[in-house]
Target: F5/8 type C domain-containing protein
Amino acid sequence: MFTKKNGFILTIIAVMLFTLTPSALAQEETETPRNLAAELSYQYSAAPNESYPDSGNELTDGVYEPLEYVNPGWQGHLRGITREVVFDLQDFKSINAIKAHFMQDSNAGIFYPVTVSMYVSDDGQNWGTLAHRNTQIPLWEPGPATEQFYIWDAAADGLPHPNKNASSAYARYVKITFTTQTWTFLDEIEIWGMDGKAKHAVRIKPEEPAYLEPGKDTNGIRDLVLLYNGWYPNGEGIWTKDKIIPYISYVDQQGEPTDWFYDGVLYLGLLTPGGERNFGSTALFEDWQWYLDTTFGADGDMKHLNDATAEVGQKLGDPKHRTKVVLMIPNPDTATTDFGDVDGDGISENFNPDQVGAEAALHNRQKAVSWYMDQVKQRWSAAGYSNLELSGMYWLAESAWLGEQFDEPLIRYTSDLVHSNHKQKFFWIPHFYANGSFAKEQLGFDAVALQPNHFFNETEATRLEDAAGLARQYGIGVEFETDERMNTDQEMRKRFIEYLNGGVDYGYMTRAFKAYYQGNTSLLDSSRSSDPIVRSNYDFMYQFVKGTYVKQTVPDPVE
Ligand SMILES: [Ca+2]
Ligand SMILES: [Ca+2]
Ligand SMILES: [Ca+2]
Model:
């Protein structure tokens, strides 16, 4: 990485010295990196907000502003679609570093972009990715204003090119994109490099942004519905055959299957028995054992899913049909200090790096995951389900800081375990502001679907478009989101319809791998409803999964 601001100031001074003595050093000048963006104009996908405008090339004037957002040299972008800034360097140049400077001031509603992406292009139309960069400082962190550079540096980070000696990207255009959350403030972007073609400068192959399509990476799953089989006070987590049938098959008003429906089912749980702990954080060894028992027991969820598939298969004249199953891996959280004795050596495993050191904590967490995966394997093969296929495992934690000191090594370790069974893939559904949502390959995930989080929050109308755009940018799928309120609340039904319509408008209905969060039983409820409006929610969803849904007018809630 660059040595941040100071290193740059030194380099700027060096460049200035060269410029002051033109004749003698003209030859060297072409070989000394300089800020190619200095004083350049640039194109925005959307101008800054009128309250915090760009007074003219603020991003390339070389001035870094004090960390006070009222300073006119900052510019502020308010919510909405991920922004793009495009620089035309006027000619092909050799680019070896890019840095973009942002500030965060939580008290003023100014937050860092979750992700800044950097691209180069020959023609300003087709773009090759140089890097995606996550914030290194959490969003929403209280306290005084802070600043952050998002940096790509060829020397430290390398280039996405097969030539290992590649030292810079040879291109004419540079694009920087940044995500927004409330206000986003930036004041400077630098593009470092040299005029002309430097030694080992390479062209970066453009990529067509595209969703992750159903196929090899998803084990053939197109539409993966989430069923929560953890503990609920009202027994909602128990998935009997009759409750499952309206998910794996489309049922008529009488509850009779007439077609297959979701081709994949993800089982996952949140609460532990009695609601005492959570599988995302505090669950203990005994809870993990309970979850396996409830999933694989003689009268457990897998047995019911198998029975449901067999019954539907008989009715549809397709008795060999198999439902594809994905199972969660609970999160072995680092806050857990007394998990339980996984390996029987009399010592309870401690996942906390502050207490046992980073290496031992990672080792203990690996031990728990490894044990769990072994159990799944054994219990699955012992049961011999006639109509199920174990297609993969699901990582429950919804965000991942990248880096060896965070969960990255544990996720990669788990990925290797999943892939040691060649028939399985590794699934993940990061939330909208998650770290690492672009880092599918780096983390070892195969099938990733981004949560738009539009259903639950009163987000801007553009959120679905933005999530769809980011999913294409990162080459991942999309999560559909709804819950029981779609059947009872007009405003929530409107949002449900927006997700359906977005699938047509942004192409994720037919082209993307999708996961479906539907609360606990929203689709089951709508399938059984005698209210034609409520029942139509189920029918629309079925049409959406089949790719035949036609956009509906979004009904306005009654005031
Ligand atoms: Ca500036
Ligand atoms: Ca300004
Ligand atoms: Ca032990």
Notes: The chain has two domains: 4-202, 216-546. Confidence is low (pLDDT under 50) at residues 1-29. The CA atoms of residues 109 and 323 lie 46 Å apart.
